[in-house]
Amino acid sequence: MTVPGDAVELATERFRLTLLPELGGRIAACQWRHPDGRWLDLIRPMSTPHDGDEEAGCFPLTPFSNRLRDGRFTFEGRDIHMPRNTPGPHVEHGHGWQRPWKVVASEPDRIVLGYEHAGDAWPFPYAAMQTIELMCDRLRIRLTTHNRGREPMPYGFGLHPFFPATPETTLEARVETVWHVDGEVMPVRLGPAAELWGDAARLPVGQVSLDTAFAGWDGVATVRWPELGAGLGMVADAPLRHLVVYTPPGAGHFCAEPVSNCTDAFNLSTSRNDTGMMVLAPGSAIATAITFSPFALP
Hints:
The protein is an all-beta fold. The chain has two helices and 26 strands. It has helices spanning 194-197, 265-268; strands spanning 8-11, 15-20, 26-33, 39-41, 58-61, 67-68, 72-75, 78-81, 91-92, 102-107, 110-117, 126-134, 139-147, 153-155, 158-164, 170-173, 177-181, 187-192, 202-204, 211-215, 220-225, 230-236, 242-246, 253-259, 278-280, 285-296. The longest helix is centred in the middle third of the chain and has 4 residues, at 194-197. The two termini are 35 Å apart. 43% of the residues are buried.
């Protein structure tokens, strides 16, 4: 059902979700009813529906994840320059998160959002779609992109959720490598994941300061909030095999982003083949899904 403003709400017996299609197709809030009756935030909610808080909610990443150095890259001999979209020196998260999405279809427990890109500084026309579905015990988000142009298109996508962080919150995931970054959070070296993750399976998010991409991820991650007696399983389908982890100290939130590409993949791909950058042929499509399954801790 539609609520005041441009927000849209989905609800089931166990889930409550608020969407802001006009604000980058963003999930503004998502709550789950614990078996003991409490409603818990699965993602960090925006404080008001229109506060513009960039470190809250959950939004799609398209046509690439994370940062693109100076907003520039060359693809098949063509120089592309995207305008800066944040205060930092690099273009971040593509543009889908800052553009309005339209409601294509809606039911009480399911919604389809669409975004049509005609071509601008990003000269490749494409159509993106989010299908958000509440099930009895899980939330599933399906992302689909079609290349509407007449030439190949470089591409990367994923999801950018902000999770609440309590003092005892942990993140568990199996990753192989990590990109070390410089002062501008740009990748400089690929090394074993343990160099930043450590040897324990569960990363204590409140005790580390990370903002980087882990590679060789198997697509499975688990968040645990011991103080709340709850956890959240996340399963991402291929090709989302990078996990961006952002743990700002003392912020009360963190990110574990299932994405297809590492930071600055379009530039790094000129010298290596493990960046996750994809190339969509004219008329072709790519799809993936991310499933979130909350659970009670013993």
